[in-house]
Amino acid sequence: MFASSIALSLLAAVASAQQLSSTLTQVVNFGPNPRNVSFYIYVPKNLPPKPPILVAPHWCHGTAQQVFDYRSWASAGDKYGFISIYPNTSNVVDQCWDVSSSATLTHNGGGDSLGIVSMVKWALRKYDGDKDRVFVSGTSSGAMMTNVLVGAYPDVFAAGSVWAGVPFGCFAGDGFDVWSDACATGKIIKTGAEWATLVEKAYPGYNGFRPKLQVLHGTVDTVLYPQNFEEEIKQWTSVFGYSPTRNETTPNTPLQGWTRYRYGPKFEAYSAAGVDHNIPNQDELVLEYFDLKCNGTKKGKCYSRASGHGA
């Protein structure tokens, strides 16, 4: 399945231990959790009223602890006043998320996705969090889970950031730990309408708010082929009712050789030229996209489900 090189490259990028106000803590008995996903949470010592929440699912062969160590979410939470959640899969074979079962791809259907949503709901209750400012971002298998959570639980999340993933439902199959070589190698091709139907079937009858989304992918990814980036674009532009024609192109952002394409106020895609599956996560970009630096300074104007404004 996924090479463990993502974890290794991230490990090499760690320069020093973070100086944090609190510690990563495990929570048990937090609600419906049919697949026994483990729940770890970081809560800054000094929380503002109604803190936002960021969910950070790990990659294949990764762990919640590794995401906590290698991403800046905890230190950013200290600085900007948000809680971060680090789920850990029960899949001991390859530590990939269940993004294939009908349960996980269905609203309140079960699977790993329901366990993660239970973590969010527990944290919202426990810390009086802002239910309109819940976000999710992951890489590789974590990116797949990000698409699953945004697609199956649009009533829970405000936005997602997907780093080297595949479309919602692309890995669908019989079982919880299905590997789809056809999807991974970019052989599953659908129309935008066909992809959108998978998202719509995840929560039948839902006509409410849809979380905004950004997807990012390297052009030489040989684990999850770049065709998946094109399929994600078709899927989400169709879900949002946008034209598949780009209405804005910005080269060399946030890095040289990366290009941002915007299709509407709630969907953007970044193509990273020459980048393989080990796409370098740009935490600052994610924080800006989620408006997590807002920190209460723009009361009533921070991005949220309630505000409804775009990027």
Coarse structural class:
alpha/beta
End-to-end CA span: 34 Å
Number of strands: 10
Beta-strand portion reads 15-25%
Count of DSSP helices? 9
Family: Belongs to the carbohydrate esterase 1 (CE1) family.
GO molecular function: carboxylic ester hydrolase activity
Enzyme class: hydrolase
Subcellular location: Secreted
Task: Report a brief summary of the structure.
With 311 residues, the chain is of the alpha/beta class.
Account of the protein in words:
- This protein has helices at 5-13, 64-70, 73-80, 111-127, 141-152, 181-184, 192-202, 227-240, 283-290; strands at residues 24-27, 38-42, 53-55, 83-88, 134-139, 159-163, 212-218, 248-251, 258-264, 267-272.
- The chain starts with a helix and ends in a 21-residue tail after the last helix.
- The chain has 9 helices and 10 strands.
- With 311 residues, the protein is an alpha/beta fold.
- It has a 10-stranded mixed beta sheet with strand order 1-2-4-3-5-6-7-10-9-8, with helices on both faces.
Secondary structure blueprint with pairings:
Layout (H helix, E strand, L loop, with lengths): L4 H9 L10 E4 L10 E5 L10 E3 L8 H7 L2 H8 L2 E6 L22 H17 L6 E6 L1 H12 L6 E5 L17 H4 L7 H11 L9 E7 L8 H14 L7 E4 L6 E7 L2 E6 L10 H8 L21
Parallel strand pairs: 3-4, 3-5, 5-6, 6-7, 7-10
Antiparallel strand pairs: 1-2, 2-4, 8-9, 9-10
